[in-house]
Specification:
Number of helices: 3
CATH class of one domain: Alpha Beta
Distance between the termini: 72 Å
Shape: elongated
Largest sheet: 4 strands, antiparallel
Structural class: alpha+beta
CATH topology of one domain: Nuclear Transport Factor 2, Chain: A
Amino acid sequence: MQKFFLAVMVTFLLLPFSNSYGFSEKGQDCSKCHTLSKDEALSLLKELDPNLKVLEVRTLPVQSLWEVSLEGPRGKGVVYLDFSKKYLISGQIIALKEKRNLTQERSEELNRIVLTKDDVSKIPVDDALVMGDKDAKHKVIVFDDPE
């Protein structure tokens, strides 16, 4: 009985040192086996908000996470799904070594509006405060931070 108990204890003590944490230590790329399509991401997230639209799904330098670019009623944003497709992560991912906020960079990229000199039609003015004649020939658009 003592030998059995000793064998069980040794097994449990050595378990954390085994390679049971996935393939990353062996140099394998987990994203080759795990996939997530835009339609699948939408089906996972539609219960949170039926008005969401998935713009893009891509893998990250962070292992075991997908970046899901979304568009909803309040604009465009980024969330993260794990490879098990059970967990949604909403928050900032920061590359410590480079001191870069990857989430903020991606959100800015998604929400960037590129304008030419004569093309102001892309500027969202649905919630704008209009002063004067809204059909005037010349318009001035003022951007301000309310804080």
